[in-house]
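tool_call: predict_structure(chain=1)
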Amino acid sequence: MELTARNVVSLRCAAEYLQMNEDYGEGNLIAQTESFLIEVFGFWTDTFKALETCEDVLPWAEELHIVSRCIDSLSTKACADPTLLSWPVAGQSQDDAFAWNGIHASGAASKQCPLNEDWWYEDVSFLKQHIYRKLILAVSARGMTPERIAGSLIFYAKKHLPLNGRQSNFQKHNGAVPGSTLPAASDADQRTLLEEIVALLPEQKGFIPTKFLLRLLKTSMILDASKSSRENLERRVGAQLDEAALEDILIPNMGHTVETLYDIDCIQRMVDHFMMADQDEIEPTSNELINEGQLVGGSHSLAPLTIVANLVDGYLAEVAPDTNLKLTKFNALASAIPGYARPLDDGIYRAIDIYLKAHSWLTGSEREQLCRVMNCQKLSLEASTHAAQNERLPLRVIVQVLFFEQLRLRTSVAGWLFVSDNLDNSQSLSGNLVIEGTRADQLVTFDDMRDRVRSLEKECLNMKEDVDKLVKAKGSWNSIFKILGLRLKVKSCGPKSSSKTSSNGKVLHPSRKAVMNLEQHSACKKDD
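tool_result:
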């Protein structure tokens, strides 16, 4: 018989069983097969073929350490840097014309084959689960980087696990997971394989894509994997939740008692893991409002938290139409993100509005409780305009929105007045004002200023008309402001309201006169 990589393992085990050693003849079968195995271990493909045949005589191959020697050979070659070597690894065997050191049998220089670090992923993906596990442990012990180990595990999982749904969906076609040469495995076998892969994943953060971890988590729920495996995956996803996409965290509820369409509790646990992982990095010294620049691009390390806040707001908006979603669960998930993590509260307001629309039976106190997770002061102009006309919101929230909008309007007017004063001081030098900074080349005329103030005055009047309608429908100003803890200061509307000069006789700028008319109009409304 001719010794080959395919039959040498069986012959070595048979020789051991028949005790064909040197005591019965020089150069007996044990010595021949051992000598040939040493040559086999020098080549990647031949070693791989020999390791595959160990399955047929596994107990003998284990006892004779053939499996361990094959794995040791493969792990050595897998850990080697292919860019520093001149031997072609993939597909190499004794039949090839190139030797281990890259020298041609005839003496000619070999042609180098450029290889990537993932060249061995596909070959080892054909190994059985228990042998593949030993190989991964071997390369890890030899110091292979977590990134390469994770890459091999991902490749193997995609080939043998139904990450897009149950195996039964594929059995109708070819009886196996697409891309796998192995027969279709039972749910129990797939569950065992998934738990093994989860246990082999590197502990270091960032080497495994969050999208893949979430697919593993969904599959573990489908296969009813062990609780420890699911908790492991939830912890890993939570640690890098800022890299997740909204469509990936919409995990269907697969519990025995299905209450909601999506698994809210799972997302809650992942958010809690994220907050615990980042609590050392994110420690605000006070409850003061942190501006958007710090959250997004500053050195405060709040950018990941802001991303997660937007992710949670989007998730709440997706699950809010579910009529079975309880108020306590909605509030718990919304409150898991601190208020300073949201530069704007438009996202959480949208989720609250959708929830109120789908749960129209909520009482007034429950609506108040729901809206407490939202900061009316951090709504954008568009969101404030929508909230001021939203009949689903409690009256207290609507009044707060209008109140903060009025404060914002007054701040804008004060800013324009400051510019107007600068225009008065520079009127003798030039009829236009050169704006500092990046707009230094743009001129602002008095007409532009006057038009701006008029538009602000019109906006304020429209807001006051909306508030007056609310007052006529639901109570007086005093009762509304008592809710907010505010007091009205009554101002008289005397003849001075029509004066066009200041107390020192100085003629007022047209923009200043418009603002004074705006304030006097507001005072008259309050007296009425």
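agent: The first strand starts at residue 433 and ends at 434. Proceeding to next step.
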